[in-house]
Amino acid sequence: MLLPEPFAAEHDEHLRRYCQNPGSSAILGRVREMILRDRDERLVHVALKAIDLGQTQQGDEPGERFFGAFLTDLRMRKALETENQTLLARLEQEALIDPLTGLPNRRAFDAEAVRAMARLRGTARRRCSPSSTSTTSIRSTPISAMPPAMPC
Questions:
Q1: CA distance 124 to 12
Q2: pTM reported for the whole predicted model
């Protein structure tokens, strides 16, 4: 498996910095979800936990540094999450429709009433807001010629 290109360069930079200052990684030892590319060029969601396996010694000089990783394929979990979201959306729709008549039920009426009241409150605020009236027109207009005030 390979990292897709935007992540590959970032990965190489993380490795370079870690090798210069070992023990300073915020990534190693933590499980991260990422997308890898398989040999058929398909993108695969995985959970990855990378670890530092240490460095070999060759005499007095440090040798090669080795890293390991645990991968878990998340394709099945992602498919189930998508299916669950689809089923939840369908259930939410079915909860608003009477199964016998196919018409909106009381829940749908209540939900629409709440949305309508919110729209009306927003409209009333705009009508009553100080920015929608000019103070000069209020001063120059006789009270008897003014329209009745809207309740807020």
A1: 58
A2: 0.51
